[in-house]
Structures are given as C-alpha cells and as structure tokens.
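Lab manual, section 2.4: Encoding a predicted structure.

Procedure: take the sequence of the chain (542 residues), apply the prediction step described in section 2.3, and record the output as structure tokens. A sample record is shown.
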Amino acid sequence: MITVRDLSLQFGKRVLFDEANVFFGPGNCYGVIGANGAGKSTFLKILSGEKEANRGHIEFEPGKRMAVLKQDHFAFDEVKVLDTVMMGHDKLWKIMQEKDAIYMKEDFTEADGIKASELEAEFAEMDGWNAEPEAAALLSGIGIKEADHFKLMKELNGNQKVRVLLAQALFGDPDILILDEPTNDLDIETVTWLEDFLLDFKNTVIVVSHDRHFLDAVCTHVVDIDFSKINVFTGNYSFWYESSQLALKQKLAANKKAEEKRAEMQAFIDRFSANASKSRQATARRKMLDKLTLEEIRPSSRKYPGIIFTPQREAGDQILKVNNLSYSLNGKQLFSGVDFMVNKGEKITVLSKDGLATTAFYQILNRELEADGGDFEFGQTITTSYLPIENEKFFSDEPMNLLDWLRQYSDNKDEQYIRGFLGKMLFSGEEIFKMSNVLSGGEKVRCMISRMMLKQGNLLMADEPTNHLDLESITAFNNSLINFPGTVIFTSHDHQFTQTVANRIIEITPNGMIDQLKSLDEYLSDPAIQEMRKELYEGAMV
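Recorded output:
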C-alpha cells in the first residue's frame, strides 16, 4: 500500500529520521508514537506530500485515494458544512461541480449533453447518489446536529469545525487515511464513535494521537520514532509500552540468562494475547500477535518525568462544600444547581458536554471568576494545587529563565531546591536557563506541573492536564494521581486517564448535575444514567 525507502530528514544538525524504511499494509491501523519533537506530525506531512524529505522516496499503490485530516480550521469558512464534508473526496466533488455547471447553462449544446452523460456515468460508478446521505450520517455521528448541516463553516465554533474536518477526512471510504490528533476537542462519546468507525474501516489508517485508550482500541501496529529511526511493532500501544519496559528491565539485568529472558518475554506475550482476545478490537484483522517474533521487542530510549505530588500537611475531614453553584456566559447557561460535598481521599472527575462549563467551574473554585449564584467553602486545613487549562498569563510577563520563573512561586529560594522540581520534569543542565518566552506548549505545561508539585497541596485540581503533553508525560501524570494520597478534582478527555483515576463522577449541565460513585466505564454504560444525561442536556434546548 505505502512503501517508505531510505527516508532521511534533517534540520541543521538535528536529525529526525535517518534512512528509515517502513511498509504500511492494507487493512491495518498504525499508531505513530514518539517523544515531543521526534517528528511524528512531520512524518505524516511527508507521507501526505505536504513536506519533502532530504532524501529517500515514498511509493503508493497505483489508483489508491488518500484522505488527510486538515489542520486549517478557517480554510472552508465560506463553504456549507455538508459541502465541506463531501469536498473530502476531491474527484467526486469535482464531478459534482462540473455536471452542475453544465446543467445550469442556458445554451445547453449536444456536446454538453454528451459530457453530462459521461459525468453522470462516472458519478454513479462512484456511488455519488449516496454522497449527501453519507456525509449527513457522518456529521450526525460525530455530533453535528442536522440543523447545522447547511450553515456556513464560519458559523460554527472551533470544536464543531474540528468535527466537520474529521468527517471530511472519513468521507468516501478512502484507501489511505492519515489522521493527526483526531481526538483533540472531542468528548468521550464522540471518541468512542470514532473508535467504532475505525474498527469497521477496512483500509489503511496512519494516526498520531496522545490518547492511549484510543490507540489501544484501534491500532494493530505501533510506529515508533526513536533513535532517529522509524520502527514498526505489532500490537497496540499498551503492548508496545509494557513490552518495551520489560525489554528495558531485561537489558539492565545483564546477568540474566538468554533462556530466562526469552521465557519471560514469551509469558508476557501469551498473557497479553489472552487479554486482547477479550477486547473490542479482537476482530479477524486485529489478531496480529500470532505473527509477532520476540526479536521485534526492544527497549525504548524514552525518559519519563518524575511527577510526585507530596502534600505538605494531611487534610482534615472537611474538604470542600459546593452549594447550588450556577454560571452563565453571554446569556448561555453553562451549569446550574451544582451542589455536592467532597469527601477525604476522593478522586472526582467533573464532566460536561461543554468544555467552557468545566473550565468556568475550576475558575470559580480558584476565585478567577464570580459565580452567578451559590457559593463554596474549602475546609480550614485545605491547601490547593491547581493546573489550569490556559497558562499564557503565567508566561506573559517579562521573560525570565526557568530557574527564576519557578523560584517566584516558592518560599524556599535555594537554587538546588528549585532545580529539583525542574529536573523532575526533565529540565536539566543548561535547560533550566531557557527563557520562558520561547517555550513550546508542552514545555509550558511541564513548567506548570513543576509549579503544581512545588505548592504541595493536599487538594489537587486539574483542568485538561494532558493537553500538549507527550505520552510519557501523560503516563507519569496518570500514575501520579493514582498514587496521590490526598483528594483530586480533575477533568480530562483522556479516557484511560479518567478511567484509572476517578472513583466518583460529577457531571454539570445547564439544568442540574449528576453525581455517581462509579468509574467512567460504569457511568457511560449505565442506561439509566444515559437517559438522565439526555434529559438534562435536551432541557437546555427547549
């Protein structure tokens, strides 16, 4: 399907890929992983023809159509939503436009009639008569209401545009589908819909995502960009992660006999295969582990940050009481009737179909916004550590190096003390003198996590903490909240993050709230709760 030969890309002295050779076969889903800056998105741009490599070439099977998830959210602003989706099949769309232009002619000639007939035959052969219903079904499945299908793209908000562009990429059953972070800005239900869509998709998918649950659900292979090489491994992300950790442990245990290592690795593969057979992706085309050889499994060079939250003091029994809180924005009710008490040691995820609602909720608790109604009170022993979704204001003042930036938030100004918190987030050596105004999105979040650890709160609050983080940092953050001895309130679109941390679900809606002592999977699979959710959200539309 796609053959990559001797691919090399270098920026100055920095080598992203060096003589990489990869084959992408039909019917498989490849998850591309690598640390931030490894070149994942760049690799997809090379495959799609948007960027050229320094050396090497890429061969495509003749006659195969590629679709790519577009990243420019304003490119189709003057186009109707339904038309934007159908434009995903370029050849079909051009035929539709060409035959419509012929039919609109006032002086319709015999030559026009012949041309229209040819176009109609080609249109029918491409199943063009079902194009509009298929596009509408995709939009509905991905959460765009029927009333919005004939609006211009510029009338939609940013989250809706992302969904339409995703539907555009999925439209028309492409032979090769390239998706860069397709789950960004999607709620959990829509991500589940996309997982199911890709599980039924019969052609080749190449995807970059930081959502581990999504990668586990859809991927048959992992494409690992590491050591300036591109290697393909059979299995999903969890299998790659666990096997690479096992391989690293075995590499460090140099005195272990080869037979023992092989037996340990084979036992791991057998255990994983048994688990995989019970998962959603265990269809005929997903059973890839039988072809796996032990030689495929290698240790990774990845570095995992040391995220450790240590409360300065133990919390008392009174944590937080929220009383009938409500908030609206520009006349739109974001939430109302939010009333609950937090118990010691609980790990609560706050959900809403509107991300503005959860962000406003955290801003109110941190006294950055004033609620329309209700109030809240923290216990006297409570100290909070908060990770906001937006952090630009923390880096907008006069630029300073990271050591001085973090020092301003600490009572202890000792350099070694501050270095320790930066070092945990992989800022070491001369990196601590990097200026705050040149940081990437991921580096800023890592700085904010250093600040969060420094505050030593016994109540942690985090609004979308996995945004901009690589898989290694997400894994470390995930584990840190699981192990944290205090209380946590957080919101995340990362399914695995939420499923493994939360023991209580609170969903805030314009018409009240739902409060359940359940895991995320239990919450989403409970029919009574889903009916309650539907009523609360639909009530907002009446």
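Check your result against the sample. The first strand starts at residue 2 and ends at 11.
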